[in-house]
Design a protein that fits this description.
Length: 370
């Protein structure tokens, strides 16, 4: 993509302790329509990049004080900077190139350089920069669209849920048993859709870095007991036993099973895992076991006797929008959101499963966050 095609003038920062080299680079690049800033040392380069990030950096390797390798490393370690291509200019042998690329540079050119080669490498790196910027822009637009869409969908869904509840209670007029049954189906469908919308909204809050967790002392056995009480009617409808086992915590005192975390989010994870277990289990049982490891970690295991998950699907089960092959599989967001929540608590979530024999999800949570 040329300067003209891009419509926006690309800004290039040239860094070299020899002014004659800067003048030469500036003359070559300005003749092609680029806007050039120049500095003579690494410290000034870092200040310039932080204040006004350029589209590309031409960086001399050998400079007094802070060399080009160190400048490159510091730029790459700055989380507040978007990607900026770095073209190293070196007069030395192959090992210097290796060191530069390992430090995070994208390309190199040797002194004395050919003008056409310099321009070709500049164009190549700027095309990469523009491509990545466009992808980042599209990702932001997509996330903003989904966030707005899911937020706006909640309002009519909540309204519909309340209205259906009034219908079911015969607030407006008496209704037939057949109509009550139909309304009950509509209520369940509406609630399922509401759950999908809520999950999608939470996923994009995490992806956008806008999710704030409220850390407090969380009693996991109590949270698990609440989830079991809420979901046991669903298990009973399928004649599946649902049990919570905290016996291994009995002799560990009143702090047993207590972690620092966001109670609502941890409850969401347990609700999702147990709800999935009920959905994918037709016969047998579901057990939730909580125990501690070395008084530093609390473990939660959700085990079922359901369909199980194929080995080839287990590696990607926590990926976003990764749906299972079972016909009852949902949007592929629940497990992804659960993994994001556990990771935010500095914990781990894992799966072991065998087709036809069931699945076991194991959560490990630190008792104290670092």
């Amino acid at each position: 993509m040329s300067v003209v095609e891009n419509s926006k003038i690309d800004r290039i920062l040239a860094v070299d302790d020899t002014r004659d080299n800067l003048i030469l680079v500036q003359t070559i690049l300005e003749s092609e329509g680029y806007e050039i800033d120049s500095v003579t040392d690494g410290k000034s380069a870092l200040e310039k990049v932080t204040q006004s990030p350029p589209d590309l950096i031409l960086l001399d390797v050998m400079m007094p004080g802070m060399d080009g390798y160190e400048v490159t490393r510091r730029i790459r370690k700055n989380p507040e900077l978007n990607y900026i291509p770095i073209l190293l200019i070196t007069a030395f042998h192959e090992s210097s190139v290796v060191e530069g690329l390992d430090a995070g540079a994208d390309d190199f050119i040797r002194k004395p350089f050919d003008t056409d080669e310099l321009l070709a490498r500049v164009r190549s790196l700027l095309r990469l920069k523009h491509s990545l910027d466009e992808q980042r822009k599209m990702a932001r637009q997509r996330e903003d669209f989904v966030s707005r869409l899911t937020h706006d969908l909640r309002t009519p869904l909540v309204a519909a849920d309340r209205m259906l509840d009034l219908f079911e209670k015969e607030t407006f007029c008496p209704i037939s048993p057949e109509m009550k049954q139909a309304i009950a189906v509509m209520i369940r469908s509406n609630q399922n859709l509401m759950q999908m919308v809520n999950t999608l909204l939470e996923v994009y809050r995490f992806e956008a870095g806008k999710k704030t967790l409220n850390y407090e002392s969380c009693n996991l056995p109590e949270i698990a007991s609440e989830v079991v009480s809420e979901l046991i009617p669903l298990a009973s409808e399928k004649n599946i036993s649902l049990k919570l086992d905290t016996s291994q915590l009995d002799n560990l005192g009143n702090k047993a099973g207590v972690v620092m975390g966001d109670a609502l989010e941890l409850r969401r994870v347990l609700h999702n895992l147990v709800g999935n277990a009920i959905k994918f289990t037709d016969t047998g049982s579901i057990s939730i076991t909580i125990w501690e490891t070395n008084h530093n970690w609390v473990n939660i295991e959700v085990e079922d006797t359901g369909y199980g998950i194929a080995i080839e699907d287990q590696a990607t089960v926590f990926e976003r929008f990764r749906q299972g092959r079972n016909k009852r599989s949902g949007s592929g967001l629940g497990l992804h959101l659960s993994s994001r929540i556990i990771e935010a608590h500095e914990g781990k979530i894992s799966l072991t499963s065998e087709l036809g024999k069931g699945s076991t999800f194991t959560i490990q949570l630190p008792k104290n966050l670092h």
